[in-house]
Known about the structure:
With 489 residues, this protein is an alpha/beta fold.
Amino acid sequence: MSYQDKLNYLINAFGGADNFQKLLGVGPSALSNYKSRKHLPLNQAKRLSKIAPQFGFNLDPHSLQIRTSDKNQKTEILLIITGGIAAYKALELIRRLRDFEFSITVVMTEAAKNFITPLSVSALTGNKVYSNLFDLTDEQEMGHIQLARKAELILIAPATANFIGKMAHGLADDLASTICLVTDAPIFVAPAMNPHMWSNIATQENCTTLLNRAVRFLGPDNGNTACGEIGSGRFADISFIVSEIQKTLHIKLNEKIRIGNKSQQKPLDGIRILITAGPTYEPVDPVRFIGNRSSGKQGFAIANACAAAGASVCLISGPVNLEAPKDIRLILVDTAEQMKRACEKELEVDCVVCAAAVSDWRPMQVEKRKIKKSSKKTPQLVLTDTPDILSWVGYHKSRPRLVIGFAAETENLKINAANKRKNKNADWILANSVFQSGVSVFNSDNNEVFFVSKNNVEDWGTNSKETVAKKLTDKISKYFSDIQENEVV
Length: 489
Ligand SMILES: Cc1cc2nc3c(=O)[nH]c(=O)nc-3n(C[C@H](O)[C@H](O)[C@H](O)COP(=O)(O)O)c2cc1C
């Protein structure tokens, strides 16, 4: 279900647009903003989740969010706004970054002030806006150096061709360019300009120079540019910029924690693990979907256990009713296709645990409107296959070292699990029977598991899902410590 569909569904569920606005205390323009920004602020989502039971359902306030992992973490981003027509988009970008609780300090070039005012910027960041290198009050304390040092990350958005050129040539004739020379923080550049300016050999050579210095480019996108020309040069999608920043800062934060705790080394320190959890919902129409009974409890328990063992964990989850785990980057999806796309972006890891119960099929056609019961004929669903994520990971050219899957079976448990392991090129399968002592494994707090590897089948018996998670984490730890020992030898 797209974000828009999800929001429309919620609006209907809360009694229509007028009522929805009343409940949130906002007008129609805020509502259309939420739709176009594909984002409902967390405080509003929480407000809705409180009153949802009165409307006969429960709502996870995070199901409409992408969140930073640690709510108390205020990471400092220095945003440099340069003088391009897309400067106005920086205002929206600031709002989105602030939604994720980043602290933003802005430096504007003189040219940027022709496009937006420092007053608007400062109202949105809640911080002073800097511009002048020779501002005495700040320079008594070497302000430009302090600004560069306190930033965890520098984002130049939008970045003009001129500014990219200055960076490539090491110029430092204003506050913004001087900071770029002083900093040792990662620098991200989101260019925006006329397509001819972007494709000009001078600009391209400057970009190559910066890429070779590990500067990260976000965009530009292809499409209509502000000057009316079509081509490459559009400011990148704001949600893409925000998600790339979030990803980088999350990894940095984990490294910091690891270095800070060097004396208390944990078994999975330095290991990156991607975990999928929960069901997927494959829409039939805006109201109905094909899903399954997975609660996500096992996948979430594994994510928590791996994080507690020191791993850097990214958890991709389908719709579940569970609290977001702390210190874990959580990406929420609905469908199998979305889950695969999210995995694609996050596949640069050491280990993947596919614990999600991904729907095997989806309706070939998704109706835009609710299918009416009054239709004369009973509707017939035509299904098509969804992507097989475990197999896709198992045979991927960048296959992570350790690939683990789950098999929920109603019969021939061990044989089916062993075949699944082989066919999907997984290293291990955790096999569980759907009916365990007459009780469904889904939503249960316990799990009866067989651990299946190439040469071995272990009966782990029935344990809580937390214990299964801990046992698996110990296995993963042992696997990586054996590898490290062999590599040292
Ligand atoms: C109306 C207008 C729009 C402009 N838009 C852009 C733009 O989108 N991208 C760009 O690289 N330069 C653009 N420029 C040119 C820059 O403003 C110019 O190169 C300026 O020196 C940039 O300064 P700065 O890099 O210090 O911010 C524009 C200029 C004008 C007058």
